[in-house]
Amino acid sequence: MHPDDTAAVAATALAFLTQLRDAQYEALLPHCSDLLISRLRYLGDPSVLKTPGPAAEALLQWQSDTSFTQLRQLSRENPITLLPGFPLFQRADPVTLLAVAGFVQTGPTVAAVVLLREPTGWTYHNLQEFDPDPRSPGVDWWPSVEAAEAGGNATDNPNEEDDDDDDYWGQYDNKTTNPGAPARTASSSALSTGPEDSYWSQYDAPSPAPNAPAPDTVIPARVITSGLAFNQEAVSPVELFNRLKTLSESEGEDETADHTLAAAQVTRNLPPAELAIPPVAGGEVADMSDGPSQGSPPDHQTTVRDALRAMHAMARSLGVSSAAFVDLAREAAGES
C-alpha cells in the first residue's frame, strides 16, 4: 500500500491518536514532525514528556484548546474510529502537504489530528480543533493527495463552492501599459517644452546648499589689516578703496581732523609742501629737519595717492572725465 493512499494515512492517524490517548508520548516522539521537534527542543523540555499531564500535552500542541481533553475521554477499551469523510488533504504551500483526521465532533467543531508529509513519510504535527468543519463546502481540504496537489476543481471536490476570485483578478491580466509612452528621464524632460515637463524639469537641477548665496551675487572679502601694512602690487581699484576706508576707520578719534585736512588738501591738488603736518613723537612736535618726513607720514600719502589714481582710472573706464572726477573728489572731501 502506498503511504499516500487514503487508507494508509487513516491508519497512521489512528496509530498516533492511540498513542496520544494512552499518554505514550515518548513512543510518539520519533514520529513527530521536524517542526514540532524543533519546538520541543527550543521552547520546552522534552523530559516533560515522561510524565503524562497538561505540561506534556502543551508541548505536543501549537495552540491551546480542548482537543486533548476530548481525546482522553475516549474509552481505552474500544479502538478509536475516524469520523466519516476523513482523512482530508491540503497543499498549504509548495513544500507543505498536510492531512487531517477528525475523531470527535461537537456541534460545528471537529477535534482532529494533523499530519505533515515529510521525506520519511507522514509525521505527527498537531492535535487541533477545527471550526468550521474541514468537510464543509468551500473549505480548502481535499479527499485525496492527488486532488490537493492539483489544487482541486469541481470534479475533485463536489463540496467546493464556485467563486469569482479568478474572474476578479483576471481583469487585471488584460490590462497592458501604453507601449508608446516614453520613459521619463532627466534628459527627456530637459528637451521638452510642454507645461508638464517644464514643471518637472525644475527638479532636475541640483538644489543649492542651505544659506548659499545666489549664483550672481558677489560678496567681496573684507580684509582687515593693521596700520599701513599694504601690498601695493597688483591691487584692484576696489581693493584700494576698501583699504583706504579701513585705514580711515583704524586711526582713532585723535587723528581724525589731521587725516580730513590732508585728504582735502590732496583733492585740491595742492603741492606736497602745503601738506606739512608735523608728526607727533612722545607728545611733542618732532624735528622736521631730517628730510622728507614732512606732512603726513609718507606711507599715508602713498596710500592716498595710489587710491586716488586707481579711482581715477576706474572713473575713466566708466566714462567719467578727469575734470568731473576732480569735482566729485572735492565734493566728497567737502562732505567729510
Automatic annotation (TrEMBL):
Residues 158-168 have a biased composition (Acidic residues). It comes from the Eukaryota. It comes from Tieghemiomyces parasiticus. Residues 173-192, 291-301 have a biased composition (Polar residues). Residues 149-214, 282-302 are annotated as: Disordered. This is Uncharacterized protein.
